[in-house]
Amino acid sequence: MLILEDEPIIALDLAATVEAAKGCVVGPAGTVAAALDLLVDREVSGAILDANLPDGALTPVAILLIERGIPVIIFSAIGVPDELRMLYPDVPVFQKPASSHRVVEGLVGIMIGRHPEG
Q1: Over 80: is that where the pLDDT of 117 sits?
Q2: pTM: predicted TM-score of the whole model, two decimal places
Q3: Cis ω on the peptide bond leading into residue 54 (within 30° of 0)?
Q4: How would DSSP label each residue in 83-116?
């Protein structure tokens, strides 16, 4: 799973939770550019994406993943950027603060066909 999160403590907590659930972490990436670089040569099965990053909004990463059919969850205190919300109104959003277990369970639920509760 790709983790795109610029707060190191949150990123490490999410990564540890994914690994505890027997998942493989790609990243964590702290910027949009770093996430896009990772996606050039890495396959991911899902992604947890923060919305507000040092180099801008997550929109390019989210669009790339969604167009590839990869499940994503937005995990942010500010919500979803307007452009992304207009293109993909059903993208699940988990508001910070929320436990990393709840967020990872939400993503796994999407991956197996359940609708997450954010």
Answers
A1: no
A2: 0.88
A3: no
A4: HHHHH-TT--EEESS--HHHHHHHHHHHHTTPPP
User: Alpha carbon 32 to chain centroid distance?
Assistant: 11
Q: What is the CATH number of the domain that holds 41?
A: 3.40.50.2300
Position 43, amino acid: E
Percentage above 90 pLDDT, the chain: 49
* Alpha carbons 67 and 69: distance in angstroms, whole number: 5
**Sorting pLDDT into bands at 50, 70 and 90, what band is 93?**
confident
Calculate the CA 68 to chain-centre distance. 14
Which structural domain range is residue 37 located in? 29-97
The number of domains in the chain is 1
